[in-house]
Every structure is written in structure tokens, then in C-alpha cells.
Amino acid sequence: MNKDQLVGTAIMLASIAGILVYGWILFFTQWSLLLLQLTGFVAVAGVLGILAWIGFTLATTPPPKPIEEIEKEIEEELKKLEAEEKKEEKQ
């Protein structure tokens, strides 16, 4: 068994153990309401945290240059290269 298979097996066993512990707490202890509240909070906080990160990224990233401006820059560079080539040909 290689390292990846060992890690995969460990993850699988830990996940199954987590499912069993979660189910046991949810159905057979007095902590079920707290567990549901924590689960709901973590799920909502995770989704809203991701949305906040996306919003922050959109708010702080400068907008890209318009295509027309990029095309003009490319044309100018091509003209410079052509001018240099003509100078080299004359020499």
C-alpha cells in the first residue's frame, strides 16, 4: 500500500467515525440541539464568509484595461518593431 492509499484510508476511516459520532450525539444525547445550532452556524458562516471574500476581492481588484486600449498598445509595439526592422535593413 503506497502513501496515497494510506492517507485515503485514514481520511475514509476518520470520516466514518465522524459520521457515527455526529449521529450518536444528535440522536442519543441531550446535546442534539446545540449540535444542530453549531452545524447551522458553521454552514451559514462558511457560505457568508466565502461571499464576503468574493466581495472583498471584487472591491479591491482594479478593473482590467479596455480591449481598445490593449489593442492600441499592441499596434504601437508592432509599429516600433517594424520601424526597427526597417532601420536594420537599411544598415
Automatic annotation (TrEMBL):
Keywords: Membrane, Transmembrane, Transmembrane helix. The chain crosses the membrane at residues 6-27, 34-56. This is HTH DNA binding domain. It comes from Thermofilum pendens (strain DSM 2475 / Hrk 5). The lineage of its organism: Archaea, Thermoproteota, Thermoprotei, Thermofilales, Thermofilaceae.
